[in-house]
């Protein structure tokens, strides 16, 4: 008996929700992530007010939210999302390292903060890392270390 070819894709995909301006960058990100083995973009929204409802309905494993959304900020959307889908891991994406943003993101319940236009491979690694329970902060977004403070 001839063996049937096997599909080598993982049986379970990481379900991803994207929330951003929905422009060309968002479309490209959705396409790139959708092509990544083991990833499935289950929803893409353009407004913070849509995030919680979509998360409740689609049950993403990871949400990638712009820190600045057309109708508010990603911090508020993070808090609302986690009320509806507390098991979801939230990574915020930002274009700039505003002082205190990493601390505020973590306080809102996000598990990471990444540069929005960073390398695609770094984003993929960050998604995998956050699913293992790691906090993922892009080093470029951390305040410079005070050389007078001991490392550690």
General description of the model:
The protein is globular. The model is unreliable at 2-10 (pLDDT under 50). Helix 2 (48-58) packs parallel to helix 3 (74-84). The termini are far apart. It is of the alpha/beta class. A 6-stranded parallel beta sheet has the order 2-1-3-6-7-8, with helices on both faces. The chain has a two-stranded antiparallel ribbon with strand order 4-5. The chain has helices at 24-35, 48-58, 74-84, 101-108, 120-131, and strands at 14-19, 39-45, 62-66, 68-69, 72-73, 89-94, 112-115, 136-137.
Please write out the topology.
Elements: E1 14-19, H1 24-35, E2 39-45, H2 48-58, E3 62-66, E4 68-69, E5 72-73, H3 74-84, E6 89-94, H4 101-108, E7 112-115, H5 120-131, E8 136-137
Parallel strand pairs: 1-2, 1-3, 3-6, 6-7, 7-8
Antiparallel strand pairs: 4-5
Level of helix content? 25-40%
Topology as a string of helices (H) and strands (E) = EHEHEEEHEHEHE
Low-confidence stretches: 2-10
Rg, please? 17 Å
- Trace the largest sheet across and list its strands: 2-1-3-6-7-8
Strand content: 15-25%
Attribute tags:
single chain, about 150 residues, alpha/beta, globular
């Amino acid at each position: 008996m001839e063996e049937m070819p096997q599909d080598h894709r993982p049986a379970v995909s990481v379900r991803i929700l994207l929330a951003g301006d929905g422009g060309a960058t968002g479309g490209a990100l959705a396409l790139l992530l959708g092509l990544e083995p083991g990833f499935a973009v289950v929803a893409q929204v353009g407004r913070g007010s849509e995030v919680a409802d979509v998360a409740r309905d689609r049950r993403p494993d990871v949400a990638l939210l712009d820190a600045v959304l057309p109708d508010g900020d990603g911090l508020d959307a993070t808090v609302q999302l986690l009320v509806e889908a507390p098991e979801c891991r939230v990574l915020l994406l930002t274009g700039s390292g505003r002082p205190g943003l990493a601390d505020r993101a973590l306080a809102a319940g996000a598990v990471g903060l990444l540069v929005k236009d960073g390398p695609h491979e770094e984003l993929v690694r960050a998604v995998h890392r956050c699913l293992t329970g790691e906090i993922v902060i892009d080093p470029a977004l951390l305040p410079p270390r005070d050389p007078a403070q001991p490392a550690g």
